[in-house]
Amino acid sequence: MRHFKKTVLALSVALLASACSDNNSGSDDVVELPGEEEYVGVSTAQNSSSWFQEAQQAIEAASAEEINNSPGAAKNIILFVGDGMGISTVTAARILAGQQQGLDGEEYQLSFETMPFAGLVKTYNTNQQTPDSAGTMTALMTGVKTKAGVLSVAENVARGDCAASLDYPLTTAVELAEDQGKSTGIISTARITHATPAATYAKVPERGWEEEAPDGCTDIAVQLIELEAGDGIDVVMGGGRRNFLPSDVTDLEGKEGRREDGRNLVDEWKTRYNDGVNNIAYVEETIAFEAVDASATDKLFGLFNSSHMEFEADREDDTAGEPSLTEMTAKGLEVLQKNDDGYFLMVESGRIDHGHHAGNAHRALTDAVEFAEAIQYAMDNTNAEDTLIVVTADHSHVMTIAGYPTRGNPILGKVIGNDSSGEAETSHSLAEDGLPYTTLTYANGPGYSAGDSGARLDLTSIDTASLDYQQDAMIPMSSESHAGEDVGVWARGPGAHLVSGTNEQNFLFHVMARAGGLLEQ
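Now predict its structure.
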């Protein structure tokens, strides 16, 4: 029966993809699906509609889904965090991914959108209506909401108060997993000491203490290297090399470290784990990364950039450089999956957020599409019977999808609207000022183009799909801001049904902890 249900689900997905591919022709013709059913009480037009048939197939697949509600049923947990991946980002990335495959894009589904359970998450910090990543990731990793700017310390600690933070630490899911003998990993395209990945292991009242902290407190990079839970984190990959090297050391990019205490934390990591028991690998670029034999590696540490890793759209596809998020996810899983006690892995697509802050939808969305590819790899290479996968965002951004573009209009392009007959017509795509505008815009940010006269930039001859184009913004700001609305959550595996509904962000920690048996009474 279990295999039959999986077959039904796979058939449903295949039929949906087929229907989407046909529907993306832009034609109004009815699409006949193989083996379509006839339903009593509805019209012939409904029975012959691909929309009706594919929805029925999806209902059947969802009804066949097994729900494992037993605490501890998830041997493994993977948390995917799209930094800044709000609902509008998911929608736009979905369309872009479909259009990259020659489809209209609207009916396409990103990998995680095929998961059987979804819900909404409230993202506010305890002191801010619109949150930051430190407070939101702390909620996801500890089950406790806290202030903006602080990492895994309680909300009664003032930001930057070193002494108080020592009295109110919060234990993270990574630490709980380590203490139970599970393998653990953190992967990010941002600096591994940046707010989102840092919240998995560090406890500081100021997210900016990446390589230096006041007397009495320990900076984020040191906390990673010296983590006492279990035997420390097994897989660490991302950017931020500069925060682990002293200022008198130059890395392979010719960039100096930032540590003023003289400590070389890379060497300290090697010393800690080069103990005759662990097989270790430290890597800084693609050639060394690809050479790592995951089957023979117990501890993997990869720092692929002095600061943040490259945007996916900028990442050079050569023999050196940086691995993709999907490649890091694959290698990380290969290392972690050797542990019979299971693992906890957090994967962040950190540069979705940075693309948005720059008012640059092209880079933000391209990273979101790559994020979905990494999730697809995890879905294809794990078992839904013993692995809980949770996909969410820490917060949203102020990017909007607006106007009335025709179906299939390039998501990064200018709005092409319809005339009264429904035909695409450029003259129906101008704003009240007589100028064209793009489907994607920002409520604020560096793309503000109106001068003192209030006149917008004329986009007629500008390629708005180019890599460096900054979408227009209503309010001028040097960096586009986060947004405060709810974000989505999608899940598959034991306990996945618990994400349904609208929940507080810290609730997701408890979903993972219950499913993985991380908390003991």
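The mean pLDDT is 90.
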